[in-house]
Amino acid sequence: MNSQHQKLTQLLDENAITAEDFAYCLGIEPAQAERLCAGKKALTPKLARQIEQTFSKPAYWLDDSPAASQGSGPSFDLFG
User: Fold this and answer.
1) Fewest 10 Å CB contacts: which of 6, 36, 67, 73?
2) Contacts for 49-57: CB closer than 8 Å, 24+ residues apart
3) Where are the domains of the chain?
4) Strand, coil or helix: what is 42?
5) Measured between alpha carbons, how far is 63 from 80 in angstroms, rounded to an integer?
6) Which tens digit of pLDDT belongs to each residue from 20-69?
7) How many whole angstroms separate alpha carbon 19 and alpha carbon 60?
8) pLDDT given at position 57
9) Contact 9, 18 (CB under 8 A)
10) Which residues of 58-67 are buried (b: 16+ CB within 10 A; e: fewer)?
11) Is 3-70 a CATH 3.30.70 domain?
């Protein structure tokens, strides 16, 4: 399991949403969201930034580098 997959799983859990709900929040196909959440498809940088912005995560939160995960900025769950 890669860190992007772990972070996406965490995001779904934090917001109590399914992969299908996640897809609708982002305006992508549910099948694409399922593959992303299952770790079968890599995130593009553009989609990663969209996810971070949509779910109020710091910039580069989804990137795999350790420095990126220590970014500054708000970190709220979408529905909390």
Assistant:
1) 67
2) 50/26, 51/8, 51/11, 51/26, 54/25, 54/26, 54/78, 55/11, 55/15, 55/25, 57/11
3) 3-70
4) coil
5) 24
6) 999 999 999 999 999 999 989 999 999 999 999 999 999 999 986 555 54
7) 21
8) 94
9) no
10) eebbbbeeee
11) no
